[in-house]
Design goal:
With about 450 residues, the protein is of the alpha/beta class. The chain has 21 helices and eleven strands. It folds into two domains: about 220 residues, 3-Layer(aba) Sandwich (EreA/ChaN-like  fold); about 110 residues.
Length: about 450
């Protein structure tokens, strides 16, 4: 651990911080800050850090047990996560968590197919099994929109069971995508350049058709019919939004980002309404997404460029019922790829840049801590000026660290609290590659061998 500096900012942060030592009461102060909020958004500074997954799970478990949260919504595709939802609720044929997570086949598989998620999913299933019959089971849901073709299949599977004639119409509409070989980006590229007709009218018509028949479909027996229709409707809605997303992603970055995050925020709201209606009381949901989606975009340079995100939209919609919690690290290792669709590697995370929030936290010398930012305190005053903040997604390019992974932000406006873990470790994929097992060579390689 670095020796603490005596700078005014380090002293101010240290006086407001709550140490995290791995004890059972680590998050007492965080739960107090969360209070009666119904939507708690837990971030991460990378998609491949063990401590972020582990600590989000610890916090979520306490929110479920102590504050009555009944759903976990994650940055994952709706149909893949719903398979996990069935497993944790005891409704699936899968015998263990690893099988329930098998739907996550799209890059980056390690984001949800990793050892920490397996442990958390098994905990959810065990917790649900311990509940009384009348108590609501905790659910696991995806908010993202990449699963265009998987979701079309799920809509057709549902209609085959409840309305074969409607299924025939849906197949005709979705046939618009057939010649793209289930390659969403190929469709988006062709449609955006006018090389192929857009499927927009077909997917909109299909969603409207499904919604128009809702009363008939919901006459089926019991609450299972309600859940089944909700699942199918969300898949049809996903197909509609994914079609637009892939058409915009090649030309309008801000537009495609905003479409994706608005879709995730709308999915969160649809899920909250569905769970509230089925349980008879307001739903309480934990969200797991990257800091770039969770932190209020209005407090960042990308927000000034016109981007919004889930955290901002949740604050605007739910107000004081929302808490945004960020996660940071100074150095360590991370599971990431060097480029899209490349194998997972265990990479070294370089020490944070001078002047960044991460380096500022490191200089306190106190290691792991929770820093409340919701109310005016010594830390929020000391952190008033904007600073650099690091963001590692599924790709990490340390050779272009500043350009690829840093942006300016105003942390006290971006989050209600931040959890800092000074040195972190790569999350363990369920299918580690030889590159991951070996790890990244030292920077002195081969000279230093």
């Amino acid at each position: 651990m670095k020796t603490a500096t005596n700078s005014p900012i380090s002293v101010a942060i240290s006086s407001a911080a709550h140490m995290l030592r791995g004890a059972v009461d680590d998050y007492d102060s965080l739960l107090e800050l969360i209070g009666d909020a119904r939507f708690v958004l837990l971030g991460e500074a990378s998609h491949g850090t063990h401590e972020f997954y582990q600590e989000r799970a610890r916090i979520t478990q306490r929110l479920i047990v102590e504050k009555g949260f009944t759903a976990v919504a994650v940055e994952a595709d709706w149909p893949d996560a719903y398979r996990v939802n069935r497993y944790v609720r005891g409704q699936a044929e899968d015998a263990k968590a690893e099988q329930a997570l098998a739907g996550f086949r799209r890059f980056p598989t390690w984001m949800w197919r990793n050892a920490d998620v397996v442990d958390f999913v098994e905990w959810l299933r065990s917790h649900n099994a311990s509940l009384l019959l009348q108590e609501p089971r905790i659910g696991f849901y995806g908010l993202d929109l990449y699963s265009l073709f998987t979701s079309t299949d799920e809509v057709l599977r549902y209609l085959d069971k409840v309305d074969p004639e409607a299924a025939r119409r849906a197949r005709t509409r979705y046939a618009c995508f057939d010649h793209f070989g289930e390659n969403s980006q190929r469709y988006g590229y062709a449609a955006s350049l006018g090389l192929s007709a857009s499927c927009e009218d077909e997917v909109v018509a299909q969603l409207r058709d499904l919604q128009a028949r809702a009363t008939d479909y919901l006459r089926r027996d019991g609450p299972e019919a309600t859940d089944a229709f909700f699942y199918a409707k969300q898949n049809a809605r996903l197909v509609m939004n994914a079609e637009e997303y892939y058409r915009t992603m090649f030309h309008r970055r801000v537009s495609s980002w905003n479409l994706r995050d608005r879709y995730m925020a709308e999915t969160l709201d649809a899920l909250a309404q569905h769970l509230s209606q089925t349980s008879g009381k307001p739903a309480k949901i934990v969200v797991w997404e990257h800091n770039s989606h969770v932190g209020d975009a209005r407090a960042t340079e990308v927000g000034r460029q016109g981007e919004w995100n889930v955290g901002q939209l949740a604050r605007e919609l739910y107000g004081d019922e929302t808490r945004l919690i960020g996660f940071t690290t100074y150095q360590g290792t991370v599971t990431a790829a060097s480029d899209w669709d490349e194998p997972a590697q265990r990479k070294r995370v370089r020490p944070a840049l001078a002047g960044s929030y991460e380096e500022t936290f490191h200089q306190t010398g106190i290691g792991n801590f929770m820093l409340p930012l919701r109310k005016n305190n010594s830390a929020t005053q000391a952190l008033f000026d904007r600073r650099l903040e690091r963001a590692i997604g599924v790709i990490y390019r340390p050779e272009t660290e500043r350009q690829s992974h840093y942006f300016y932000a105003h942390l006290p406006q971006q989050f209600d609290a931040v959890l800092h873990f000074d040195e972190t470790h790569a999350v363990e994929p369920l299918e580690p590659t030889s590159q991951w097992e070996t790890g990244e060579a030292p920077e002195t390689f081969p000279v230093g061998v």
